[in-house]
Amino acid sequence: MRRPNFLVIVTDQHRADHLGCYGHPVLRTPHIDALAARGTRFERFHAASPVCMPNRASLLTGRYPSAHGLRVNGAALSVRATTFVEQLRRAGYRTASIGKSHVQPMTDRPAEGGAAAPAVDAWKDDGGDYTQEQPGHYAGLERHPLRTPYYGYDEVDLVTFHGDQAGGHYLQWLRRHLPEADRLRDRSSQLPHGYVCPQAHRTAIPEAFYPTSYIRDRAVDFLRGTRGQEQPFFAFVSFPDPHHPFTPPGRYWGLYDPADFVLRLPYEAHHNPPPPIAWCRERFLDGSRQRQGPHDAFFATEREIREAMALSAGMIAMIDDAVGDIVRALDDSGQREDTVIVFTSDHGDYLGDFNLMLKGALASRGITRVPFIWCDPRQGEPAVSQALASTIDIAPSVLARAAVEAYGGLQGRSLLDCLDGRGRGWDALLIEYQDSRTRQGFQRPACVRSLLTERHRLSVYQGESWGELYDHHQDPGETHNLWEAPGHRDTQSQLMQQLLRKMLAAVDTSPPARYAA
């Protein structure tokens, strides 16, 4: 029996509620919605870690960051790590990664603001090349021959960074086909606009040359090339949008009006905001916000947030159009009825929750809850699943559907029994966060462990006396922190014990003992 193909589509920094099928009142995403209408849409799917690199490594390995080792942005996934893509490749799959990978550093700059590197580390160098996504390889016009297999991918078309500043193979292609590319990418060349939102830039790069279009075209070419082939394929198509900077090109810039968006959870809605939220607000009030880094969560005005929402919506709309073209190419290839399509994101964005933007240590649902759609030709009726599920569940789900043997150390579980909408999933999720530098008012790089149950979120911060506890039945917006509430001490104690058990269950079991002691 022929194994199924897989087309996995990933966006970057895209919260679940910013899709039409997840109930957004303004944003229109007909092509992604069509996948949900034919498959299973998961309502309670969360990142294993709400940060790009750690969660992308969790997707590839089916393991928590504390197990696979890529705990913070700027580290790298060990070349010794087993990925589910490698397992598919060994089973005869053609494997391709098109777009953003980000399991190795995209820069060659030293880490900022972290602890000084020790002279000798706890781990010796394993000899792997961890420079493959760095910009120096892509400075010339001739396509850089990235060494493969790359974490299991035989074919790699790499896009690094975000928005109109994307790099990798895309930048080499852009410079070959658009001689004035560097001038158009320069911020001094941006088109006139009246937006005040930080990192909102009206790019002069034409739509046809924007990274989303490049990834779409490469994916379409790949799918067309599968026509008539018997070899099953796994294609990972990863867009770097709608991650900031906010640079939707051409008609997508003005596609949505900021006036149509609503700030649902202003700062004032939180009755006892945790210290990092208050710290961000203080930086805004004292005028020092601009000294924060470009990827640091910051406090924004209502106007800035509405503008960011509208521009993010434009970027998502462009992705949705690209998804439509990609799925049509799959149809044209004759492979649609043999292909499982998955749509998800690596993490979300505060995008106005309590006037915050971007992402950070606070594990609110805006940054942990992401879309997850499984569209399977073998499926009967479409469904909506309320199962608690995590990024670590993607690897075992794909392997199970492909009838490929799983590997030791997998920490996720297959979601195939949830596709009819009746499976329960996990009783609770563990969400890990670790920072590489000090920010958001913390006295040290933040290290956080969160427990998410059907009803509650509990978050514990290393070295801090405060924490977070929310009752989602009574407070879905997380506006009343019950950490210090006397009437909830028993609940806090029970959840702390449950968190401890989840952390114990996440202790790595690989490699196992090979011999008797």
From TrEMBL:
It comes from the Bacteria. Residues 4-402 form the Sulfatase N-terminal domain. One of its GO terms (cellular component) is cytoplasm. GO terms for molecular function: metal ion binding; sulfuric ester hydrolase activity. InterPro entries: Alkaline_phosphatase_core_sf, Sulfatase_N. Coiled coil: none annotated. Keywords: Hydrolase, Metal-binding. This is DUF4976 domain-containing protein. It comes from Hydrogenophaga borbori.
